[in-house]
Each structure stands twice: as structure tokens, then as C-alpha cells.
Amino acid sequence: MSDFLVIVESPAKAKTIERYLGKKYKVKASMGHIRDLPKSQTGVDVEDNFQPKYITIRGKGPILKELKTAAKKAKKIYLAADPDREGEAIAWHLAQSLNMDIESDCRVVFNEITKDAIKESFKHPRPINMDLVDAQQARRILDRLVGYNISPLLWKKVKKGLSAGRVQSVAVRLIIDREKEIKSFVPEEYWSIEGEFLKGTEPFDAMFYGINNKKLDLTSEDDVKKVLGQMEGNKFTVTSVTKKERKRNPAAPFTTSSLQQEAARKLNFRAKKTMMLAQQLYEGIELGKEGTVGLITYMRTDSTRVSEVAQSEAAEYVESSYGSQFLSSEKRKDKKSTNAQDAHEAIRPTSVMRDPSSMKEFLSRDQLRLYRLIWERFVASQMASAVMDTMSVDLKNGEVIFRATGSKIKFPGFMKVYVEGTDDQTEEKKNNMLPDLKEGDEVLKKEIEPKQHFTQPPPRYTEARLVKTLEELGIGRPSTFAPTLDTIQKRGYVALDNKRFIPTELGEIVHELMLEFFPEILDVEFTAKMEQDLDYVEEGKTKWVKIIDDFYRGFEKKLEIAEKEMAEVEIKDEPAGEDCEQCGNPMVFKMGRYGKFMACSNFPDCRNTKPIVKEIGVKCPKCKEGNIIERKSKKRRIFYGCDQYPSCDFLSWDKPIARSCPKCESLLVEKKLKKGVQVQCVNCDFKEEPQG
After folding, report:
1. Same domain, 231 and 287
2. Which of 403, 406, 395 is nearest to 433 (CA)?
3. 347 and 428 co-located in one domain
4. Which residues are catalytic?
């Protein structure tokens, strides 16, 4: 018989914690929530102060029975779910199911699963925090009232299987609004003049700046001709040299959203995958003789705060690995968003001494890549600023001024370990230092090249950019970003095209109906205020019933109007222009989870489906008869193959192009680089200049 029973959410977490607590403690897993609102009904009594009706989740009966048996044998029970609203609610539901006193010291929280953190947390148990529980309950009840009232309406008026939710509706709205911006965008012409100059034999680049010390924008080819017409000869005089030293500070350690963004940029991970791997690293990894150890702190956080112990350990590591000059000499303030709950620390390694190279044998490839990202970001955040030497030079010919800028790393500081990624498609030039120039020097013009440009529309949202936007607008919380992105794709409201979100026809239809009948659900400010109100509940400043009552009074009236006035929408299948090869009926285009596909119009009698073939205008280099088409693998990765498959098995992950190699006549393909693409031969060493 164990003296103490500890209940956590997952078996992996239970296994790790049990090692640290000793024989007197038995650690069991509840496998997440043990109770929830019923799936078959709303489960909220709107006539009785919105009281929720909780039931044991289907399939959790045996687990609850096992926990009750273990609870009867234990002298004391500790509830050690995650340190956030959701974890507090799980603990409360367990306490209710096990007839525990919620005011007793039964709740244990820790931000990392390490021996010291676990032992320390068990010295300071506390009662269940009902403010946290009420904040979670309020969110759950709000989402249930919205989802279980609007969804049946959409099933009746549009099609079955649809849903509506507060956060997901705003996310879809952002994607649709961005698509409208792109479609209505009118490109504007502008020009630049790039120059290559020589100081002696040293070449350097400069850009046209202006006329007579005033900046001039070039909007047409005529503007360019006027500038070129004012230049005489090949000599330019250096009229101004400005040298500065600039500091560059490291990025703060990760929050949930910044981790999702950076993992997308640097590792090409979807938000869902990032959180799954982070959960594994948090709950514990088997490290040989050391046993199971949690490698990172809790991964659902909006705080960049770091404990003093972690800061000291990082300083020790930096000094021993890189030298004292790489230590930060200033105390950096924690960056905290307006809506940050700041319940715990930033995401960081539980011990900086476990560097990625020492973890290689214990982690899967993707686990290691994410751990390295977290480790490097944290270490860099505790290091000295980088110092850059910058130089700006003005060159004059008559009244025409060109300006050259350059920078060079004087002291790398944190950049020795890690540099934050960027969504900007233009690659930053590094160590682009200019020749030693001083006022009065003469330089020679080597080449002047005018270039025409057009302004670009705002880019479609990637997962990373959408997460960043939702966070900036105060929509959702760290735990909601990944599930929200997953839901809007599963419902078929949006699809990913080249890793960027595009709205589907279904998404636009549902959005228009929501905008007409439930505009406040789509209102960014309304949704952000609701998140703030939930924070007030957590802080004990307001009661959850009031928050829901204020919302529901107006919502109920809008529901009644929508029931009467919302017209039924018939989504007609678009003819595909060919017949089904199995039954002869016309094929139609349908919208699925991964975008459009072709299906037989005689469904369900005929279930024939096939992907939409996208030809790229290139003949197959292998069989010489087929055409190359774009395909998708089971993991939704694009590749290129012959349309005569399986008789011809040509395959390429790189996109073939419709011309041959000038050296060997073989196939040329577009090779994707980190920034842009490069045309190269599959057979010889021929390569063209990369294109951004």
C-alpha cells in the first residue's frame, strides 16, 4: 500500500515523476480530462445560471474506477495536472469525482519535470484555485453555447459536419479578409537604379538616392531617364562618410507562439507537430542511466520570464564555453504581451548543461531538431549583444547622389549561437563592408543598371504568420493556436496552398452567413475583450456567470432571428468536364480536407474519386511519351511524376522545367533554396544564378 497517490494527465509524465518521489508515492495518469460536457446535448442549463452538466467521458469509466480504488488505499491524494487553467480544471474534476476536499492542500504544480522542481513542489501543496477553474469553465461553456447553437443551424442551412467557434471564426475571417486584399490589390510601378563602383580595384554596390541632397522616388522609366541624363562621365566623388557602431540584442526565449513561428520558419514544422514534440520533451525522455527526464519547461506559456537559477546556470555555461566577454552585462527586461497570463516561465531547457550534441543518441531526429532550437534560443537570450560596424557613404556626380551602406560583425555576441529567423523573403547581407572610403575620394562607375519593380500585395498567411497575428490581436491563448489551425482545415473552411492559407468556397459561404447573423463572433475586438474578461475571472476580479450572461442575452436574440431568416444555401458541385471511367456518369469537383478533388456525381452508388491533375508543360524525360504532372505524397508533400504511371516510374521532388541543360542536354529542375530557387541540371554541375 502506497502512503500517497499522485494523479497526473499522461503515463509519460507519471513515469518520470514516480522516479523522483520514491516508494511511498504511487503516480497514476487520468489520461487528460476525466469529465466533460456531454457530446449529445448542450449540457448547459441557461435557466439556472448556466450551470454545466458534467458526465464521465465515454471510455474513461475503467480509468476512474482504477483511480477510486487507488484513492481508497492512499493516506493522501495529490493532484499534479499541468500548471494552467486546463490543468486546474482537470484537478478540480478529479477532486469532484474522488470526493476530495478542494480546500485541502491537494494541488501540486511545477513548471518543469526535474527532480529538484518536483521535490520542491511537493513541499508547497495548495488548495485548488477556483478562479482558474472558473476561467476554464467559462471558456468551455462559452464555446459550447456558440458551437452547439450555431453548428446545427449551419447543418440545416448549408451542409452537415460544419461548426462555428469564437476563435476559429476569427481565424477564418483573417484569411478571407487577406484574400480580398490580395484580389483587390492594384500594383504600382516603381524603379530603382543600382550601381557597381570601384575604389581602386575594390568593387562595391550603391543605390540611387536622390538629386541635390533630396531623396527622390522613381515612379516611371521617364524618371530614370531624367536621372541618367544628368550624370556626366564615370567619376563620382565621396561627399559624406558616416561610421557607427550598432548593438543588436538577442531575441527573448520562446513563448508558445514564438516557438510555433520559429519552428515553422527554421524546421518547416506545422504548429500541431511542434506542440506534439514539445509535449514529449516536457513530459520526459529516457536518458540511459539517468532515467526519464523532462528536457524542457512547460510548453504552453506567454511569458518570457526566466528563473534566477536558470540564468545563473546559463551564465556559467556561456562563460566556460565561449568566455566572459560573451556574458550579458545588462539585465534584460522580460517582454510581456498585454494579455499575457505570465503563469510560468518561458520555454527553456531544464538544464542548459544538456546540450543538443549530448542528447543526440536519446532523441528522434525531429525531437532533437526542436530541442536544439529551444536550447540555442535560450542560451543566446542570456548572452551579450552583438556589435555591428555600420558605414554609409554618399557618392555624387553633378547633382545625382548614390548611397552605399554596409555592415560588418565587430563582435558576434549571441550570434555565435543563434540568430532569429525572419518572414522577410529578402536575405540579409552579412559582412557587407565597404572599402576604406573618406570624403573627397573619387570612385569610378563600373556599371549602372535601372530596374523596374511593382509593389506586391500582402502575403497570404502561413501558419506562423497567422499564429503571430492572432497573438498580437489578443485572440485565443497559447493552448488554442494549434487546435484552431487544425480545426479550420478539418472543416474544409481553408486549405494550404504552397504552405499558405487560402479560403475555400465553403469557408467563404459560412463566413458570409456568420457575418450577417452573428457579426460579434467575427469581431476581433469583441473576441479579444472576451479573452480579457476570462483573464479577469482568473484573477478573481469578476464572476464567470456574469461574463456568460452578458454575452448570451444578445446572442440568444440573434439565434432566433437566424433560425427564421437564414436562407438555405445549396452548394452545387462544379462539373469536371469528364466522365467517370467506372460508371460513365459525369465527374464533379468536390472540396475535401486537402482542397479540391474529382468525384463521381453518382455518389454513393459509385465512390470513384481521383486527384485533380496539374500539368506543368514538360514532357517526361524517361519515357518521352508522357507528360509531367504535379502530385502529392501521403504526407501532402508535392512531387512530380509521369502521367503514364505505373508504366513509367519517373519521379522528381524538384520541379522540372521545359528546357534542357546547355552543357549535357539533360533535364533541368528548379531546386528550392532557403530563399528563392535555383535552376540546375540533374546530370552535370550546371547551375544558374539563384532567383529570389
Report:
1. no
2. 406
3. no
4. 298
